[in-house]
Amino acid sequence: MNNGPLFGLKVIELAQIMAGPTCGMMLADMGADVIKVEKLPGGDDARNYKEESAGEISHSFAMLNRNKRSIALNVKKPEGRDALLRMIKDADVVIENYRLGTMEKLGIGYETLAKINPGLIYCSISGYGRTGPKAKEGGFDLIAQGFAGLMSVTGEKGGRPIKGGNSVADINAGILASVGILAAYVHRLKTGKGQLVETSLFEAGLQQMYWFAAMYFATGESAGASGSAHPLIAPYQAFETADRWITLGGANQRNWVKIAEVLGHPEWAQEPRFLTGPLRKKNEEALVALIAPVLLTESADHWMCLLEAAGVPVGPVNTIAEALNHPHTLAREMVVETEHPTAGRMKSLGLPIKFSRTPGGVKRPATLLGEHSREVMHEYGFSNAEIEQMLACGALFAIESA
């Protein structure tokens, strides 16, 4: 169905909610055959994360689980565990995002699976990683953002700690996991050997702190929150105009000189306080105090037109609706539609990576729980009798239409 660059890669996703499913979604969007093995009863907990007035389907679940096939398997039952092990013998990748030790207790940890499939790439996403004093603790995006220092640099200067509006640690952990899997896959193509790949929400949060960490290593001081402003350069932040907010990027000397000219004050560029980037950052409050009143005199469109013509980075602060419906968003195929079996036409975000020869994309909607149980079991050599036995003992669940 999906002929992207990873076509033919067989992935077993033993993950739920966000970090692991994000990883699986990335691989599936690029063409991998991702079989989502959901727990019984109930399946992925995110199936119950429903938006108000959204109906029966969770759009949040649907967003992260398109392009996958779903089987519902109770691996706590011997029949379910044996079925999973039989599938993994022929798999390329396994993804899981449970607390350290959970998979081992179920008899499906890395050491066990590597013995039956030496070429297997086993990807583990946890809260804090598999080593260290916090390794056994669970992981949550909010907690990871706080622990990694992200919340200390988010929000207005002098304000209370603020979580990033999106699930930074969860999403980035999924992306890092997909990068790790692909690197391990390249190694396996060269050597035939699989390996354990792991990352964590904590590391995914800390990895976002490159510049803040560099500043600390250089000065020994922890930077705090500074609103929309950049930690090293100015002016580089959001400003209010007569009708809406815009973002203005004076990222270098040339941009700063152009900003001063467009705003009608070329003399600002010659002021001793603003002659260099470090000086502008040091005197940022005075700089903003000059710029802000001028921008308030005209509309956002007025200023963006002038600044864009001058080659200055500038843009609107969009609402989610404005961002998703912008012509550029649509031109880049970042909003796509699929036909869901019960919810009808559904929109989701597209694949943010483009390929000239092997394009990926969203070809299949998120599945119903157990929608492909029979189909997948047959593909892995299970007979009708074996499938019926598993259904009867509660090790497998399949919807009637599957």
TrEMBL record:
Enzyme class: transferase
This protein's UniProt keywords: Transferase
EC number, UniProt record: 2.8.3.19
Gene: uctC_1
Organism ancestry: Bacteria, Pseudomonadati, Pseudomonadota, Gammaproteobacteria, Pseudomonadales
InterPro entries for the chain: CoA-transferase_III_domain, CoA-Trfase_fam_III, CoA-Trfase_III_dom3_sf, CoA-Trfase_III_dom_1_sf
Transferase among keywords: yes
Species for this entry: Pseudomonas fluorescens
Name the record gives this protein: Acetyl-CoA:oxalate CoA-transferase
GO MF terms held by the record: CoA-transferase activity
